[in-house]
Design goal:
The structure is a homodimer of 981-residue chains.
Chain A (H helix, E strand, L loop, with lengths): L4 E3 L2 E3 L3 E4 L7 H7 L2 E2 L3 E3 L14 E10 L3 E6 L6 E5 L2 E2 L6 E10 L4 E9 L5 E10 L6 E10 L4 E8 L12 E9 L2 E8 L5 E11 L3 E6 L6 E8 L5 E11 L6 H11 L3 H19 L1 E4 L2 H15 L27 H14 L1 H13 L1 H11 L21 E2 L9 E2 L2 H4 L3 H16 L2 H22 L1 E3 L4 E3 L17 H24 L1 H11 L3 H13 L35 H5 L1 H5 L9 H9 L8 H11 L12 H11 L3 H12 L16 H15 L3 E3 L2 E3 L10 E8 L2 E7 L29 E4 L9 H15 L5 H5 L6 H9 L6 H18 L12 H10 L3 E5 L5 H8 L7 E3 L12 H10 L6 E5 L2 H9 L3 E5 L2 H4 L4 E3 L7 H19 L1
Helix pairs in contact in A: 4-20, 5-6, 5-9, 5-20, 6-9, 6-10, 9-10, 9-11, 10-11, 11-12, 11-13, 18-19, 18-20, 21-24, 23-24
Chain lengths: 981, 981
């Protein structure tokens, strides 16, 4: 715990986040940051003494009540925090007197929030005040708050007032009617009821004082029962006030206030309750923790995000789910979005599947609401609400009222058009089942979800007779900047996928649970006509995908929209929609969040259409630069992190990952005050485990394809698959082989004490065996001349290692071209290059290559080509060395480019060798990185500044041979061994 | 005070309304009923002990804060009422233990609300508890609350908790941030600030206990400062707790909480404060009271309505005005409508003009908001907000959000279309000036209001080149059931009137305050072009008025709408809009409130176009039956009461009047819980003074044309005109002469001790000089035959004295005809009658008439005809007596029919005689009534059952002469004199 990271007045250790300075401008966002909870309720990190600017909130799952415009919201429940300390008549408040020291700390391991303040009162009394609170995860109806006061320099008359505030508010609105209040021998109680939904809530509290003789007194002003303790304390004398609170609602018992009072009467000591709570947290973390070594910010941030998810996941209730802002703020009013199914659920599915099941069962229980929505819109089956609450009816607001007297109301169209939610729910349902094998739940709940939403889709699609295809018109896709689009690729493909799964489930039910199928048949009318229609839609729904380019058009006509260069708007602190306005945003190729890329991400898990490394690459290049990843949707960064990681864009992947991981800790988007970004937190888990850890399911087992960010020395986590825990413990030096789990024996070159046993060589092509730089130059020059652009050899030098797109952008300079034009120019240049390499011949082999190849072959060493080029195979042919090469790994072989190890691992596999038996010869930094990541020996050609990480560095292959190389490799191995000892 | 009226558990005396039984279903409406206030704030009549169903509210003028949808609302201020009595541990609550007796009473004379309860606690202790409260009108920042407890049968340990509740709410929404709280030696205080408007409020309270030894204790839980007194009381021992509260806001001082604490420290005793308060009320009532004798319900109801207006009229603030629901509830959110200018202001203009000026100056201060609204809608000048709050910007909500998930939002169009408000403000401005002669205010404020709104109108009208006229299209008129109409007669005529007055004011300013005119010229650009346009609009704006019929079409095309018979919907308990829906209501000839009739009412005061007795009659007959007077707008009944009274429809007038007067006392419309119906209360004053009292301005002095409802023995009130008080004391037996004021010397025939000095005779026509009954019968018979309706001479007997319309309705019986058809039949019958009287000749003179006429003429006595018939003149011609008649008063002469005295007064005036010099000869009850009301001598022809009130009763004129008649009249005068002595 020595390692700390500091940022914006926050200090991170592996398990804690601390604030040592209260920044007024972060007052409300820090209330979100320091939220605690226990799966039953969440309580924002507001201060016990109360401030007018504060937004205290205790939100209980399912306690919804009506409100205008947004229909219903989680009602802020009575505040159990109020605890006022009065020192010689001076009320303790941070803005009064003087703060001599201050620390607020959230310990996510123990689920405890504490605050230590040394305060000098306006009268000059110095006192230490320590607060500690927890919402028991061991007993969800119990809340504990402790306050310890210690006068520092003089005896003080101290009064502590502990209350329940029966006037909680949702941004001013108080949902509660006060029914009754009173006292018992153990404390005071309050009985309230929500205005419209008429949910009753009982809360009781008692205090216990130790360390001094005190007089205790009860006052019961309406709605504000208060227990007051008055005592004298000498310097150094610590007096402890423990406030225990119990809370129940009529959602879980008949007479909540009675139950709360009974519970209060039976509670053990504060310390026992805390012990049980910490013990329970330990059990939770054993399953869900992720260990990261080498990056304390990432370590804490990841645990923090998981903590925030763990405290809002319903543990004993399958009629609620996690709202977009969890139980930590008023944003989105406690409504439930696709955020839960697509972004949050994977964490639970793979580490706490019983919680995932609770949340998916919520979708089962809310099918009636989804059916009412379908009826309202004139469709069949179940149409899930874009925003859902207690009943599943649609609660997305229709209007965003203007702030000024004459402003226009803004119509929000999501309730009507953002229909992909129904497929998203089916998606989560399917993968929960895949991961858990929970056939019983699929039979009882999941099947009905998937089938009745499939029925909705077949009533929602339209047949276009002109093009003889199914279409889905007038939707909003994943990207919400475009509000009225036809044939959104994301939606159409998700629907197709959904119907495929529906047919599968139908058959599965028939084979395994024919009675259940019969029941659903009766209930939903799953006629063969209906199923044949599903098949027809699957076959004929239009996905705007261009096979020739691999590019997917986000929706019909997207490419015709005005293009945009987001860099031109930098620096900015608000979303592109805020800058452009809704109308203008609709007209441009700017995305709020991944849409085509989101589709590729969702299809990545099962590697289904249209997912492929090629389409990913192609569409990433097109869509990533057009996505408002900084201020668009907070759902974007984690997904981009994973895809960038797949594409070997390590730095970008890490940047996006941290953008997601710190969104609430550091208020990256400026809206943390509204509550935790739940989807982003879920995305963080996916980015670490599925992205950096590279977990994929191979042969019905999770397999890691790790790709750790720079500096991460270790990544350790558990992954539950079909009832079996798989513990992954990944380290960068092990980042070389596809593994299934950590307890498998792996031979590492670096840990071997013997000389390397070299059995194969993998050569990069360009710059190693030949040099096609001249051909690239000539191709660019030709293009530049045709377009009248300035270009020459000197300029060409700057393009080494630069991507095709970036090269072109540098050549065009300040000139602006529409994207189509850029695309066309890149294609043209490539064609020139491909044409020119027709002229390659054996004379283009670099010096020393042919000799070395022959030597190696004579030594029985296998030879492979490892090049990202898609032209590698013809070039090898033309160089006349095809007969000397045993295997080729090229631009078609793997998805992730160097520095991902994939290409070399592929090559080794082709050669039938272990990575540690291979030597990679490379001239580029990313190539050396990739080889090291693959766990291979490396020979770097060129300056140390470029290939310095290689085991052996040579200027080129001209003056070497196998004997010399072997000696150098042996030396390198020995040195490495020595360094380790 | 012996006389009491009972109704729905309320008991009325002349000055008090009492509740002796708490009906649960009236819980919230009674909170409205028992509202108190002082012109600075209003406090609903909620109970001190607090209930979950309660809607306590203290609303302070001008303390607005933002809220969604409706933009801004009066923020409910901290509740100063909480006072909890705990008897031997049992909290006093009405639903616990047993209520042995209960009375809640509002004394509107003293402005004091009290409650007496004898309660048996659950533990069996019986105690008397008496509460009393007032909001001091002598010192508006002081509130007093007293609680007296007296154990009845056993010594009790009693605790009284007096608090300020810092968590007030507007239907759940709490507008306040708690800034600070604390205690002083005099009590506790609370400092809060509104969330958005950032108005600070300081409230302080202290308690004083007498009658027992008590321990006092202060607790200060956040937002709920509480003072607790604990004591023992023996049976019969009365302990009094006096809670005094002070309140200030930053609208009137810089540091409100400091000022509140200082004020609290300096306050005298409760009893002194109460005395000063009662004294101040006495002064208010001296000006504004109305005395009614003979009808205790009306007496109390009128005083109650005036009380509710007096407690919400801003006394020391000219930047606020009276909201639609006063300061007594949450309805309409404290927004200000035309209700204030048109319905409420007359009461103040004529009894407390300085308060009227405050409210009109509010309109002056909000001109900038009205100008912003005009700019927003693309117009010039000042366009007043339909709903106005602190700035004058438009705050009418655009939408009525639906209650259910899939309901449609309802667009409210008033902000866009109900534009007559700008003319309404000008109307009130003009009449304030007329009544007060306050030239200074007109110069400084009023002129700018009238002129800048006139500028708005000239940008708002459209010129229709086809018809060569100005039009105003796309409006909502006074009648809100029609939301999109063109050329609403009310609006168009009000605009024309407004422009006339604007030109007048322009000239007046030029003549009297040329510098001010110059200033406004500069500021508003009052170019001659602009003024010439005003003249042009005045000349050419279209008023849909048919001169031939006298009927005004409510708007273009109204008569083409589907007709409706509201009786078919009876009995009903909701508005026609609620029954038909908005769309269907728009399509029908059904009115929410008077529109054409409203225009006639507004033009009645100055007898301007299109007002005339004839148009009133004609349009009343058409529109009154089509107006949803019971559940449409609460603005309607009082106006209908006045017009019905004008039309001699006494019973209907009284019914409408009581509908208005009891709307809140008896919750006639079921929405009293939302707050007092301010406009209705203002209408009640107008109905009594301008309607029943018949006050009109003649010769620059108010003159009464009284027409007291049946049973009223006295109507007494004051009326201020141009700085001079006019005291009216009207009684039915004096209801006979036009008077200016009570202290004026009037020679009454009844009070003369001498023989009457008869100088003129006024003869009714039909039944006195001739008998046209036969002609009427023949005309009806012809119509009935043509229509196949049963009718005969016997049936005709039932039509004596019955109006044409009512006669027709009796003939048609159960059959339903559209209004047009009825109208046509009435016209046809009249034509038959007119045709038939062509045959009248001198032989149709009744016996004795010609002789008497000749005698009278020989005696130098003038002769007039006084007949309501519009055919009187031709009939007189045909009877051959035209040369014997000096003057004719007929159906064209005056507005109000008999029994109004107008016609005979008109005739006397034509003869140049005083009423007491005239004898009226009549054969109808209403005619005798009218003559007596005119202060004339009367000769009744017919049975005493019909004309028994006359001074002289004769079967007919056959057997009399002038000598005999004079003798009888002298006898009658002598008897009358004797009866008085």
């Amino acid at each position: 715990m020595d390692i700390k990271a500091h940022s914006q007045h926050l200090t991170y250790t592996d398990w804690t986040v601390s604030e040592t300075h209260l920044a007024p401008e972060r007052f409300n966002s820090r209330e979100t940051t320091f939220t605690i909870g226990n799966g039953y309720l969440g309580t924002r990190g507001s201060f016990e003494e109360g401030y007018s600017r504060a937004l205290p909130a205790t939100l209980i799952h399912g306690v919804y009540d009506e409100v205008p415009i947004v229909y219903t919201e989680l009602a802020n429940c009575p505040d159990w925090l109020p605890l006022v300390v009065i020192v010689d008549g001076d009320r303790f408040r941070l803005e009064r007197g003087e703060i001599l020291s201050y620390e607020r700390q959230l310990d996510v391991q123990r689920g405890v929030l504490s605050r230590k303040v040394r305060w000098r009162s306006p009268s000059g009394i110095t006192i230490d005040i320590v607060f500690e609170r927890f919402a028991s995860i061991a007993d969800q109806h119990v809340l504990g708050l402790r306050c310890q006061v210690t006068p520092v320099d003089s005896e003080s008359a101290i009064e502590v007032q502990a209350s329940i505030n029966g006037y909680p508010e949702n941004q001013g609105f108080n949902h509660w009617e006060l029914l009754d209040q009173g006292k018992t021998e153990h404390g005071v109680w309050l009985n309230l009821r929500t205005r419209s939904s008429r949910i009753q809530l009982g809360m009781a509290t008692g205090i216990k004082l130790s360390g001094a003789e005190a007089s205790l007194q009860v006052t019961n002003p309406p709605g504000y029962p208060t227990l007051t303790a008055s005592f004298l304390a000498s310097p150094g004398q610590t007096v402890t006030v423990e406030k225990l609170v119990t809370v129940f609602t009529s959602l879980e018992c008949e007479n909540p206030v009675e139950v709360a009072c009974e519970k209060l009467a039976q509670l053990p000591e504060y310390s026992s309750l805390l012990d049980a709570h910490v013990q329970a947290w330990d059990e939770v973390w054993q399953k869900s923790d992720i260990v990261i070594e080498g990056d304390v910010t990432a370590q804490l941030a990841v645990r923090y995000n998981l903590f925030q998810l763990l405290i809002c996941a319903p543990r004993n209730n399958d009629r609620v789910s996690i709202p977009a802002k969890t139980l930590s703020g008023f944003g989105y009013r406690g409504h439930i979005f696709w955020d839960t199914e697509i972004f949050i659920l994977p964490f639970f599915i793979y580490t706490q599947p019983e919680l995932a099941r609770n949340m998916l069962t919520y979708r089962y229980h809310t099918l009636p609401g989804a059916r009412r929505k379908a009826v309202h819109y004139g469709y069949k089956g179940a149409m899930y609400a874009w925003e859902s609450a207690e009943t599943g009816d649609e609660v997305t607001p229709r209007w965003l009222p203007p702030n000024d007297f004459y402003g226009e109301d803004i119509r929000i169209w999501c309730r009507d058009r953002e229909i992909h939610i129904s497929a998203d729910v089916a998606y989560a349902t399917w993968f929960y089942w895949q991961a858990t094998g929970d056939d019983e739940w699929m039979r009882d709940c999941g099947a009905e979800i998937i089938l009745d939403t499939a029925i909705f889709w077949s009533s929602r699609v339209e047949y276009n007779t002109k093009y003889e295809r199914y279409e889905i018109r007038e939707v909003i896709g994943a990207d919400e900047y475009h509000e009225f689009v036809h044939n959104n690729a994301f939606t159409n493909r998700m629907v197709q996928w959904h119907l495929e799964k529906a047919l599968y489930i139908y058959d599965w039910l028939g084979n395994n649970f024919p009675e259940k199928l019969n029941e659903l048949d009766q209930k939903l009318n799953l006629s063969s006509g209906r199923r044949s229609r599903w098949n027809d839609i699957i076959a004929n729904i239009w996905i705007p995908y261009d096979e020739s380019t691999g590019l997917i058009e986000q929706f019909e006509g997207f490419f015709q929209l005005q293009d945009i260069n987001l860099e031109e708007y930098e620096p900015r602190t608000k979303s592109m929609q805020a800058i452009l306005g809704i109308e203008e945003g609709n007209k441009r190729q700017v995305l709020k969040q991944p849409d085509v890329l989101m589709l590729l991400y969702l299809m990545r898990q099962s590697q289904e259409f249209p997912y492929s490394q090629k389409t990913l690459e192609k569409n990433w290049d097109y869509y990533a630069p057009r996505t408002d990843i900084s201020y668009g949707s907070s759902l974007g960064p984690a997904i981009h992190a994973i895809l960038a990681s797949d594409l070997g864009k390590t730095a970008e992947a890490y940047e996006r990952f941290m953008q997601a991981a710190l969104v609430d800790l550091e208020d990256v988007r400026g809206n943390a005050a509204d509550g935790i970004h739940g989807a982003s937190a879920g995305g963080v888990w996916q980015a670490v485990v599925l992205g950096f850890g590279g977990i994929q399911i191979g042969n019905d087992e999770p397999v890691a394809h790790p790709h750790l960010p720079h500096g991460w020395r270790r990544l350790k986590f558990n992954f539950l698959w079909r009832g079996k825990w798989h513990a992954f413990d990944l380290r960068p030096q092990e980042d070389m082989e596809t593994r299934r789990h950590a307890d498998m024996e792996i031979s590492l070159p670096a840990s071997s004490s013997e000389s390397p046993n070299i059995r194969g060589f993998i050569f990069d092509l360009d710059g190693v065996l030949t040099d096609t730089a001249e051909y690239h130059y000539l191709a660019w020059q030709k293009l530049a001349d045709e377009e009248g652009l300035l270009f020459n050899r000197e300029a060409n030098e700057g393009l080494r290692g630069v991507s095709r797109r970036e090269s072109l952008l540098r050549i065009v300079g300040d000139k602006h071209y529409p994207e189509e034009k850029l695309q066309e120019m890149m294609d043209r240049k490539n064609q020139y290059y491909v044409d020119s390499i027709q002229n390659i011949s054996p004379k283009d082999l670099l010096p020393g290559v042919l000799t070395l190849l022959d030597e190696l072959r004579q030594a029985g060493i296998k030879i492979a080509l490892g090049s990202a080029s898609k032209n590698a195979r013809p070039v090898v042919e033309k160089l006349g060395i095809a007969n000397r090469i045993d295997a080729i790994a090229d631009g078609y072989s793997v998805q992730r480019p160097k520095p991902a190890p994939d290409l070399f691992l592929y090559a080794a596999n082709q050669l039938g060798l272990e990575p540690a038996q291979c030597v990679v010869v490379e001239d580029a930094e990313a190539g050396i990185e990739a080889a090291l990541a693959a766990g291979m020996w490396t020979v770097g050609l060129g300056p140390a500044s470029r290939v310095g990480e290689a085991h052996v560095i040579l200027p080129n292959l001209a003056d070497t041979d196998w004997t010399k190389l072997r000696a150098k490799l042996n030396d390198a191995a020995a040195q490495q061994q020595k360094a380790r000892v």
